[in-house]
Design a protein that fits this description.
The complex is a heterodimer of chains A (114) and B (118).
Chain A: E1 4-7, E2 10-13, E3 19-25, E4 31-38, E5 42-51, E6 54-57, E7 65-66, E8 76-78, E9 87-94, E10 104-105, E11 109-113
Parallel strand pairs in A: 2-11
Antiparallel strand pairs in A: 1-3, 3-8, 4-5, 4-9, 5-6, 7-8, 9-10, 9-11
Chain B: E1 3-5, E2 10-14, E3 19-21, E4 24-26, E5 32-39, E6 46-52, E7 59-61, E8 64-69, E9 74-79, E10 88-96, E11 107-108, E12 112-117
Parallel strand pairs in B: 2-12
Antiparallel strand pairs in B: 1-4, 3-9, 5-6, 5-10, 7-8, 8-9, 10-11, 10-12
Classes of the chains: A mainly beta (114), B mainly beta (118).
Chain lengths: 114, 118
């Protein structure tokens, strides 16, 4: 089954404790992306990757890092989480051959930073 | 710059009523695509439809229909004979610019929370 998976689905942590949210897709997609969803703000893009070793900032990259060492994986790293990073996070992927193609979203990771 | 406006923050209707969710977009590009996603209470994002800027035909899929009007920059979504299972947050989204490659993500509206009461 074609899918995007994220782990963990739920995470409660404390300020300053480094964490990683993993994202993996099995569709051989080149393009992957991270969004955060906040009430009243919709979804906003954090980082994206056009292919292995190619990453770039989205609209709200501050406080986040990403890496793309393998095509299928695109982890989101919070080196020193803060309460304003409490949010619902979505990973997405699509084939870069079609910029207008549907993006496939993971199930979401709900992060709470105390 | 591109922008998507969903002015309706929350809509509440009684089951079996028809309901329309509004979406107004802004873009300087002549090539763009519009999307609708559904987010049920379980939280995942479910793709509903994609429409390109060169195709103004309305689309119907069962109880769902979409009205795309370039003259008013709108891409509205209507649910006919609503059901409780339609209760969700609905997002309209836009991507625009030249074809082929491109790095920009989707620009989402803030979403409309639809509540269908039994």
């Amino acid at each position: 089954e074609a899918q995007v998976t994220q782990n963990p689905r739920y995470l409660i942590t404390v300020t300053g404790k480094k964490l990683t949210v993993t994202c993996s897709q099995n569709m051989n997609h080149e393009y992957m992306s991270w969004y955060r969803q906040d009430p009243g703000l919709g979804l906003r893009q954090i980082y994206y990757s056009m292919n292995v070793e190619v990453t770039d900032k989205g609209d709200v990259p501050e406080g986040y890092k990403v890496s793309r060492k393998e095509k299928r994986n695109f982890p989101l790293i919070l080196e020193s989480p803060s309460p304003n990073q409490t949010s619902l996070y979505f990973c997405a992927s699509r084939s870069s051959s079609g910029r207008y193609n549907e993006q496939f979203f993971g199930p979401g990771t709900r992060l709470t930073v105390l | 710059a591109q922008k998507v406006t969903q002015a309706q923050t929350e809509i509440s209707v009684v089951e079996k009523e028809d309901v329309t969710l509004d979406c107004v977009y802004e873009t300087r590009d002549t090539t763009y695509y519009l999307f609708w996603y559904k987010q049920p209470p379980s939280g995942e994002l479910v793709f509903l439809i994609r429409r390109n800027s060169f195709d103004e035909q309305n689309e119907i899929s069962g109880r769902y229909s979409w009205n795309f009007q370039k003259s008013t920059s709108s891409f509205n979504f209507t649910i006919t004979a609503s059901q409780v299972v339609d209760s969700a947050v609905y997002f309209c989204a836009l991507i625009s610019g030249p074809t082929g490659g491109g790095a920009d993500g989707l620009t989402f509206g803030k979403g409309t929370h639809l509540i269908i009461q039994p």
